[in-house]
Design brief:
binds flavin-adenine dinucleotide, protoporphyrinogen ix oxidase, domain 3, five-stranded parallel beta sheet, 32% helix, Rossmann fold, 10 helices, 365 residues, alpha/beta, UDP-GalPyranose_mutase_C, seven-stranded mixed beta sheet, single chain
């Protein structure tokens, strides 16, 4: 008998299991995949950590969360500075003074601001993503960086998408190319699988084990179930199926230095992939060989991995019904990106698992 059966050996499940084990509770972690780590999993290929489910860079401004993850792995000093390739030309990204120099030839913040004022389209109340971007940077930058990429990623025209999807994208009047603005940033030197392995040290883990293959059995094994899988699946899709976008990866082992940077975004709609990753650059690798991954957006079906929730009004309304049901589900705790139908960065997942643990401990006192 266990105190907690935790469905999912991803970041949420691993942090929760570690904290509860350290507090004296007996935990069992199960995962249907053949490995731990969920989407942060990295696999060693010829000494290179390959980010199997897309580029993962840890970033946070919360010292507590940074100190927490550093207890389980040493982080390198990688700073994410992706580049854009549009029709064979390379641009600095996110949009900054270097980008504006490359596109318009402006060299100072004053010149750049003047140019932006000229090219911005006046739209009083931008109603969708296209209008919002046009009102911020005008037609040329929209077509160079946003339009094709967004159409590939979401399989929808930017006119059909809400502005909030991209409001996170910084537009800078300085030469700063660091994609993230957080105080702390890096990647575990030994890969994320090493970090998750340390979190799960001494805890029973069963891989290739789908909760739904025998859910009555797993429910009986513990007083409390912690569920980090898809919430609609947990409730038998009774209110319908929540939509996701998926991804498909093609990976090759090559010689040398393929693109000179860890991440390149391909923003032209004619190119079918959205990103090319060269994994050794995530860890300053100087190996003779290199591992390169092409990332293609893909339609989600149940046999694929759900990557990005489609948080439009229809899906959010459906999620709220599931959330309501989850609130009155005794003995089950829901957590993580799939159970909450929300895009979470890793630091937010760590924060939410630690907060859940804190709340449980407070109740038990
Ligand atoms: P998951 O990692 O999905 O873990 C859930 C686990 O539950 C999975 O292992 C799954 O197999 C298992 N499971 C589900 N159903 C069952 C079942 N029925 N039975 C048994 N097991 C089950 N964040 C950053 O901070 N920086 C980044 O650079 C970054 N890049 C990203 C890039 C991409 C392409 C994506 C999609 C996400 C990125 N993220 C990034 C976000 C990061 O991946 C998530 O924050 C994190 O993986 C969420 O952890 P989780 O435990 O909630 O979910």
């Amino acid at each position: 008998m266990y105190d907690y059966v935790i469905v999912g050996a991803g970041l949420f499940g691993a942090v929760f299991a570690r904290e509860m084990t350290d507090a004296g509770y007996k935990c069992l972690v199960i995962d249907k995949r053949p490995h731990i780590g969920g989407n942060v999993y990295t696999e060693k290929v010829e000494g290179i950590d390959v980010h199997k489910y897309g580029a993962h860079i840890f970033h946070t401004s919360d010292k507590g969360i940074w100190d927490y993850v550093n207890r389980f792995a040493t982080f390198n000093h990688y700073i994410n500075k992706p580049k854009v390739n549009y029709k064979g030309k390379v641009y600095s990204f996110p949009i900054n003074l270097m980008t504006l120099y490359q596109v318009y030839g402006v060299t100072t913040p004053q010149e750049a601001e003047k140019k932006l004022q000229e090219v911005r389209v006046t739209i009083a109340n931008p109603a969708n993503l296209e209008e919002w971007i046009l009102s911020q940077v005008g037609l040329e930058l929209y077509e160079l960086f946003i339009k094709g990429y967004t159409m590939k990623q979401w399989q929808k025209h930017p006119k059909e998408l809400p502005a909030f999807i991209i409001k996170r994208l910084p537009i800078r009047l300085n030469f700063e190319e660091n994609y993230f603005e957080d105080i702390y940033q890096g990647i575990p030197k030994e890969g994320y699988t090493f970090l998750i392995g340390n979190l799960l040290k001494g805890i029973e883990v069963r891989l290739n084990t789908d909760y739904f293959s025998d859910k009555e059995h797993f429910n009986e094994l513990a007083k409390t179930l912690v569920y980090t899988g898809k919430i609609d699946e947990f409730f038998g899709y009774r209110f319908g199926e929540l939509e996701y976008r998926s991804l498909r990866f093609e990976t090759k082992l090559l010689e040398g230095n393929y693109q000179g940077n860890a991440v390149f975004n391909y923003t032209d709609s004619e190119v079918p992939y959205t990103r090319v990753l060269e994994h050794k650059h995530f860890n300053f690798g100087r190996q003779k060989h290199t591992v390169v991954t092409w990332e293609y957006p893909d339609t989600y079906t149940r046999d694929k991995i759900p990557y990005y929730p489609v948080n439009d009004e229809k899906n959010n309304a459906m999620y709220r019904k599931y959330e309501q049901l989850a609130r009155s589900c005794p003995g089950v705790l829901f957590g993580g990106r799939l159970a909450e139908y929300k895009y979470y960065d890793m630091h937010q997942i760590v924060g939410s698992a630690l907060a859940k643990v804190k709340a449980i401990k407070a109740q038990k006192v």
